[in-house]
Model the fold of this input.
Amino acid sequence: MKFFMKNNSQNKTGIIVLAAGNSSRLGRPKQLLKYKETTLLKNTILEALKVENSFVIVVTGSSHILIQKELNLSEIIFSFNPEWESGMSSSILKGISELLRLNPDCQQSIIAVCDQPYVTNSVFENLIDESKKTGKGIAASAYSETLGTPVLFHQKYFSELLELKGQEGAKKLIKKYIHDVVSVPFERGNIDIDTEEDYSKLIS
Done:
């Protein structure tokens, strides 16, 4: 996989897409729900791939064989999380570990999820731009009076991301280091797909 890393690799942004869950509330893999002539997960990945000077890691878990077969994209790096059932923290840990393996000098990473249908490359790029402009170490998407994914972390936070446990996610660090956070508006970022009702609303 080293061929992904070109000159100035430390300046690249690693975009980690979390896609390991088993969609228990939905009853089928949400990653593979049809959306925009593709799937929910592939839509997120294709938007991430548009971001200049970046590389994309997809963390899989439940249904990983099906997902990998369905995607069949050579431009992305798959990372299977065998401990996906233990919670989101294990997938973040897996993604950051893979990022550091591929690019030890990587200066920043964006953590994204696969079920925000309105995510675009502009959402990712706005996080990068605002972090650079403000000098803040965390750039978090703002919607519905909360801060969440996608969220950018400077490399100084990688060690703490690797220490998350169980159901803990990126929000723990956003709250802990709120003084170092810039909020970046993400219109309709509050819409995610957890149930059949959510999906019906999306495609109706």
Notes: The two ends are 40 Å apart (CA to CA).
